[in-house]
Amino acid sequence: MKNLDILYLKEVPPLYNHEIIIKKIILYVEENLHEPLTLENIAAQSNFSKYHFHRIFQSTVGMTVTEYIRLRRLANASSALLYTSERILDIALYYQFESQESFTRAFKEIYKLPPGKYRRMMSDVIKIKEETNMETKVKGWFLSGSNPFNYEMGIDHEVVHQGKASGYLKSKTVLDSTEFATMMQTFKANQFVGKRIRLSCFIRTEEVDTYAGMWMRVDDTMEEVLQFDNMSNRPIKGTTNWNHYSIILDVPTQSAVISFGIILSGQGTVWADQFTFEEVNESIPTTNLEVHGELLYEPVNLSFDEEI
What we know:
- The protein has 7 helices and 9 strands; from the N terminus they run H-H-H-H-H-H-H-E-E-E-E-E-E-E-E-E.
- The protein is an alpha+beta fold.
- Strands 1, 2, 3, 4, 5, 6, 7, 8 and 9 form a 9-stranded antiparallel β-sheet that branches.
- It starts with 16 loop residues before the first helix and ends in a 29-residue tail after the last strand.
């Protein structure tokens, strides 16, 4: 891709306030999935009424907080089924299901198999994949960046936010903090032209020493950047639990291509899950970063008197 170095852009726009609140709430939920959680005590963490909190959570995340908690508990339970020898009843009770029967009903609704059968079948499937997959490939995604050969991308069945798998990007032989790689996709912009769109996903990190995040850019037919955000103003560093992140960009009429993905700079590991695209109202501000090097409409600061 032309001008891939633009992924390193560092300009900073303001962050939408609701996103900050939702991140705080999701972090609270992630740390307490094995504890009783109610809408009232979760809303109290946001300093909003439970009705207002319910509305902004659903608007931002795309589901109710109750549904989110249920899906996260089931995802953690599915991982426990595959990677521990804990009894199904103990897993069910740990994740706040009233009984093994209620857990089985909820689990089967999402994973289409009862927990015991899921444990037997999926354990065999994962074992076969680990034994036969010498080279990791991920359908629809490709690896790029400044030093992609120093990184690895793949599918993780153990560290999962929802469903059966997440995607990951991790460093292998990175020696310089300026090295970066991205796990990305590119597609035609046609369906979103003239709209403001939000790209959202859930991200988790481990020992990221420089920064990780999500990115999206909109290009015209000449591969000139029209809109761009790489979360460099709100980088994810260190070890973090799953949380919700979003980018909001306009797709101008001359748009041709949309590219997006996750980026990892330096060493560490980043997981991503549940990418979604949606059109949003123009009352929601974009997170577009000013692209250095854009051609100005007229000369500026000719006497050098203007302050930066």
